């Protein structure tokens, strides 16, 4: 291995691409970088690749209609075998908790290739919630050689599982790097704001597998109640492509004059709406990190979260999928300016925009590059 190690970044979904884009850009200064996409989510992935100017070197193109977790896993394992033959990487980097993450990490482990796990150490303690992400995180952590933990809490989780302290680097979350880059781009070239002017603006995302069925129906009930209770609210909901979500949401909310159901937004368009919104209601992991960076209170439609730092900091509130909890908490925030401002002004515990820089610096340190003579200083939440 030369002092410019070969690193293969693997990503398959939109959130992975968003959070790996800053890593790719920074690593390119110290490493030979290739990108492999599995296209676990083809449409939403391609939007992000285009925005960040990423041209994959390898594309497994595995997405198929009604794909199962078993099919995704086996196709990635098979495809990664060919990619690893071609790319001959010194390291394989994966991100987060998707089936792409685990499958690519396993393929690299089988070949004896060290795995770098970006956004390592997140845990809920419940293997079924979120499903299958909690399992994917733990299994990826079991085969990873280097753990890029976003927070001190994630590091503590890894240490409790017996991970060597020397293999853990606390970096902050690369989602904040990507968000800051995107906000800067939007300042130069704004995208349209889709909310009605002079209204209370509520942005909603919902897609979690464990909420399919009654959970989604309960969420829709709550959303209708919220806008019915407010005189001038406008609720914007980009509807996920998954048919388990799409039809239920359309049937329950499609006729409401204060609710706009729209197609999934390209990442910069979503960030533009995020910046314009007053309140975020979501079951997304990444949005729990992004919205507080913009001073937006977040209601998380989950019973537990792998990102407890935000709950402790006061930037998010867990409301589950109970319609009464969602409705009551949303109305309280939108009608109580003191409580709203307390959430909006809380310190975001997830990053300072330098996570990818710390990862690249660590790789330079590993490679013995003279510009990186020591391990990077860990990310610390501002006091």
Summed up:
46% of the residues lie in helices and 15% in strands. The protein has helices at residues 14-27, 42-52, 69-87, 99-110, 133-143, 152-160, 174-188, 214-229, 243-253, 267-276, 285-293, 308-313, 323-335, 337-344, 355-366, and strands at residues 6-11, 32-37, 58-59, 91-95, 115-118, 146-149, 168-170, 200-205, 233-238, 259-262, 279-282, 298-300, 316-318. Helix 1 crosses helix 15 (355-366), helix 3 packs across helix 4 (99-110) and helix 8 packs parallel to helix 9 (243-253).
Structure overview:
With 383 residues, this protein is of the alpha/beta class. The protein contains 15 helices and 13 strands. The strands form 2 sheets. Strands 3-2-1-4-5-6-7 form a 7-stranded parallel sheet, with helices on both faces.
């Amino acid at each position: 291995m030369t002092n410019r190690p070969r690193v293969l970044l693997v990503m398959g979904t939109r959130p992975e691409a968003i959070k790996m884009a800053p890593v790719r850009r920074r690593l390119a200064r110290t490493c030979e970088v290739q990108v492999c996409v599995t296209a676990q989510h083809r449409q939403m992935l391609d939007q992000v690749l285009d925005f960040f100017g990423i041209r994959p070197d390898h594309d497994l193109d595995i997405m198929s209609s009604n794909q199962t977790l078993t099919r995704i896993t086996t196709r990635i394992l098979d495809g990664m075998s060919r990619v690893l033959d071609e790319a001959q990487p010194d390291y394989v980097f994966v991100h987060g908790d998707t089936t792409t993450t685990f499958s690519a990490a396993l393929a690299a482990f089988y070949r004896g290739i060290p795995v770098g796990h970006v956004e390592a150490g997140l845990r809920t303690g419940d293997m079924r919630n979120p499903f299958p992400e909690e399992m994917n995180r733990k299994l990826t952590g079991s085969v990873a050689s280097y753990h890029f933990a976003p927070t001190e809490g994630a590091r503590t989780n890894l240490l409790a599982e017996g991970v060597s302290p020397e293999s853990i680097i606390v970096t902050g979350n690369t989602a904040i790097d990507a968000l800051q880059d995107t906000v800067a781009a939007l300042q130069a070239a704004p995208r349209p704001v889709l909310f009605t002017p002079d209204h209370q603006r509520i942005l909603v995302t919902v897609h979690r597998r464990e909420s399919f069925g009654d959970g989604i129906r309960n969420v829709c009930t709550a959303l209708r109640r919220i806008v019915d209770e407010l005189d001038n609210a406008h609720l914007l909901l980009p509807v996920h492509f998954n048919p388990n979500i799409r039809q239920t949401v359309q049937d329950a909310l499609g006729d409401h004059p204060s609710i706009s159901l729209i197609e999934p937004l390209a990442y910069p368009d979503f960030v533009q709406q995020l910046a314009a919104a007053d309140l975020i209601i979501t079951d997304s992991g990444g949005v729990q990190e992004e919205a507080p960076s913009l001073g937006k209170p977040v209601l998380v439609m989950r019973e537990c979260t792998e990102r407890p730092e935000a709950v402790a900091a006061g930037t998010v509130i867990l409301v589950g999928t109970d319609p009464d909890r969602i409705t009551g908490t949303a109305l309280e925030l939108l009608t109580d300016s003191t409580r709203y401002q307390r959430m909006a002004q809380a310190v975001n515990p997830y990053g300072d925009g330098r996570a990818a820089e710390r990862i690249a610096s660590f790789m330079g340190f590993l490679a013995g590059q003279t510009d990186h003579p020591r391990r990077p200083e860990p990310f610390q939440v501002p006091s």
